[in-house]
Amino acid sequence: MDLNVSIHDVFEKAYKRYPDKEFIYDGYKRLTYKDIKQMSDSIASAFHQLGIGKGDRIIACLPNWHEFLAIYFAIAKIGAILVPCNTRYRVEELSYIVANSGAKAIFVVEEHGHFHTVKSLMESNESALEMVFTVRFQEDGHHSFEDLLKNRTVEAAAGSVHRSERRCVFHFIYFRNNRTSERCHAHAFKFCP
User: Fold this and answer.
1) Residue from 97, 159, 169 nearest 128 by CA
2) Are 53 and 47 in contact (CB under 8 A)?
């Protein structure tokens, strides 16, 4: 078993073996490995063009939708760091994560009202956020998930992290414990095979 394998490598291997096999059904769409691969490549290319790269933190405040997987694999491809965020977080919790994670970009949905919280944090310069990406809705002046998919160039490979550089996987997990505290707690996980 090769322990020097990234999540991107695992996905690429599965894609090559089962390109037309169903990979996910999120209650909205059924998508194959090939569909998710094309999406993640387009997103990785768009990230590269927007100046998002290795080591940058990206918050994904999304439900269990296929968009999350495409974003996750694009992040892995370019060597960025995923900061997953629960869509049920309240304004205070989301504000804490945005302000303290050092994230350069965030993906949000309309349903939970997080867009307006993030927008006000950006306007007040209380975070490092430079970009807000909307998922399944459009907002003037911001990129949407669909905008990222329009980028069908092969340039994604240019922004991809070479296998020899993929030594560690980073994730930041934020959580709260209602019984002991109203504050969020942060844990950074680093896995180095």
Assistant:
1) 97
2) yes
**Residue linked to tokens 């059924």:** 30
**Helix, strand, coil tally for the chain in percent (to 5):** 40, 25, 40
Q: CA-to-CA distance for 168 and 110, rounded, in angstroms? A: 33
Domain count across the chain: 1
* Residue 40, amino acid: S
Q: Cα 18 to chain center, whole Å?
A: 24
Shortest CA distance to 85 belongs to which of 164, 175, 158?
A: 175
Contact in structure between 79 and 161 (CB atoms under 8 Å) = yes
Contact in structure between 42 and 152 (CB atoms under 8 Å):
yes
CATH of residue 49's domain is 3.40.50.12780
Residue ranges of the alpha helices (H) in 51-81? 66-78
Contact in structure between 177 and 185 (CB atoms under 8 Å): yes
C-alpha 3/C-alpha 51 separation (Å) is 30
Residue 41 burial class via C-beta count within 10 angstroms: exposed 0-12, middle 13-18, buried 19 and up: buried
pLDDT (tens digit, 9 = 90+) per residue, 19-65? 999 999 999 999 999 999 999 999 999 999 999 999 999 999 999 99
Cβ neighbours of 101 (radius 10 Å) = 22
pTM of this structure: 0.80
Domain that holds residue 53: 7-191
Which helix (H) or strand (E) is 188 found in, with range? strand 184-191
Confirm whether 2 is domain-assigned: no
